[in-house]
Amino acid sequence: MPGPKRDPKNAQRDLFEDECQTPFSKPGKKVKKRVSARKPRPKHTELATRFLTVNQVAKRYGICKATVWRWVNEDPYFPAPVKLSAGTSRWKEEHLSAFEDHAEKRGNANDLRKKVIK
Predict the structure, then answer these.
(1) CA distance 47 to 56
(2) N or C, which end of the chain is more exposed by having fewer CB within 10 Å?
C-alpha cells in the first residue's frame, strides 16, 4: 500500500510536519511559528576607525618603511603606532590626519617634504 501523496513543492515541509507539533496541539493541526522581526541596525554617522600598516603609512608619505620607524623614534609630533601583538603595529588614520593638520597649523606644512629629503 503506497504512502500518503506528497506535494513535490512542499516535500521538505511534509517530511518535517510532525516536528512542528507542540505537545499541546492537536495531531494534524499545523502550528504557526513565531518569527521575531529583527531590529534595524542603527545608522552610524561616523566612520569606523581605520588602521594603517607601516607599508600604507610609507606609501601615504612617499617614503620607505625605515623612514616611518625613524620618524616614530625622532619626531615627537609623529603618532606612535598601536601595538596589536608582537610584530604587529598599526597607525590610526585619524592620528595621522591630526599630525598633518598640526604640521599645517605650526606653519611647518613642508616638514614632511623636508624629512623625506634628509
Answers:
(1) 19
(2) N
- What are 72-86's pLDDT values in tens digits? 999 888 999 999 888
Instruction: Output the nine-digit C-alpha cell for 77.
Output: 609630533
Residue type present at position 90: R
Could you please report the per-residue DSSP string of 34-47? P-PPPPPPPPPSSP
Its pTM stands at 0.52
Q: Residues with Cβ < 8 Å from 52, sequence gap 6 or more? A: 60, 90, 91, 92, 93, 96
Q: Which residue has the cell 554617522?
A: 45
The C-alpha cell of 89 is what? 603595529
Give the contacts of 32 (CB within 8 A, at least 6 positions apart).
none
